[in-house]
Design goal:
It contains ten helices and 13 strands. The chain is α/β, with parallel strands linked by helices. A six-stranded mixed β-sheet has the order 4-3-5-12-6-13, with helices on both faces. It holds the Pfam family LysR_substrate.
Length: 323
């Protein structure tokens, strides 16, 4: 098979113009380029691709089947090139730009709606492209460049990252409405010894914290009934499968409005899960990310202080890596 050459953007644009105009003369007038130039460039394109792209006649020019098949691809290329130009223009005017942020599914959906509108109001040029993955996947994606920054939970297992603390998120014990402990006020921690505790799947870092809480209070972790998400854990609580420790932001977002499960007051509170913003120390926009962390803490203090323990800013020397 003969090697296929590399068409240029200019050649593809000329081909598209001829097809749209229906003639070389029309394309020449539209583009403000001489007809011989367009003719030679399309000839070079046909030679590079090894196929005839246009049928020429006295009545005009139409694409061959091969030329017609190229039209949607040329359109896609044109769209992407325009997007690159727009992004470059946007960046050159001092805008913060588009940044890929990874978040865990057990945290992002319940935290980001509280802060993103405030972040956008503070910096309308900052655009966060948010994707969900487990914390371990997020850390690997940050290292290999799939993410620019990540919202994740401690401990961060990959060294060398800048880690900026945001807040501690408490856990609360949730029970089905008909559980014997419901309605008895403050529940002594010893009362849940031997109780069945539900947990999320092991692939989530949250599983390890749920397992630690089961061990702390002497409860039985039900490994046969792990939930694929916090919603499935909540649904299993509601149908009487057992109790579960759930994060405060999830409770605020999904349980308080529904009342399908009951939140118990426990005499002894488990440790918070510590939430951080992390990025590579070499990130070009590292100062922007530190500012973003500061904004997030401010929003937490103003809107979420009743359910979160907002962290103090981390000095660069105290981060996983200085930036």
């Amino acid at each position: 098979m003969a090697d296929i050459g590399h068409p240029t953007l200019k050649q593809l644009n000329y081909l598209q113009a001829v097809i749209k105009a229906g003639s070389f003369r029309g394309a020449s007038q539209k583009l403000g380029v001489s007809q011989p130039t367009i003719t030679s460039q399309i000839a070079a394109l046909e030679e590079a691709l090894g196929m005839t792209l246009l049928e020429r006649s006295r009545s005009g020019t139409i694409p061959t089947a091969a030329g017609r098949d190229l039209i949607p691809h040329i359109t896609n290329i044109e769209t992407e090139v325009n997007a690159i130009r727009e992004q470059a223009r946007f960046a050159s005017t001092g805008g913060s730009g588009v940044h890929r942020m990874g978040v865990p599914p057990t945290l992002g959906p319940y935290f980001l709606p509280e802060v993103l509108s405030e972040v956008h109001a503070a910096d309308p040029t900052l655009r966060l492209y948010v994707r969900e993955a487990t914390p371990r996947e997020l850390e690997n994606g940050l290292i290999d460049g799939r993410y620019d920054l990540i919202l994740t939970t401690m401990p961060v297992e990959i060294g060398g990252l800048v880690v900026e603390p945001l807040f501690g998120e408490p856990f609360k014990l949730c029970a089905p409405p008909d559980h014997p402990l419901v309605g008895k006020g403050m529940v002594n921690a010893s009362a849940i010894r031997g109780e069945r505790l539900l947990a999320i799947e092991e692939r989530h870092r949250l599983f390890e914290q749920m397992q630690a809480m089961a061990n702390q209070f002497g409860a039985h972790l039900m490994r046969d009934y792990e939930g694929t998400s916090l919603d499935t854990v909540r649904q299993m609580i509601g149908t009487g499968f057992g109790l579960a420790f759930l994060p405060a932001l999830y409770i605020r977002s999904e349980i308080d409005p529904r009342n399908d499960v009951t939140v118990l007051e426990l005499s002894e509170t488990p440790s918070d899960r510590d939430v951080v913003l992390a990025w590579r120390p070499t990130a070009a926009k590292r100062q922007l990310y530190r500012s973003l962390a500061s904004q997030m803490r401010r929003v937490c203090r103003e809107k979420l202080s009743e359910c979160l323990h907002v962290a103090a800013p981390q000095s660069a020397g105290g981060s996983a890596a200085a930036d």
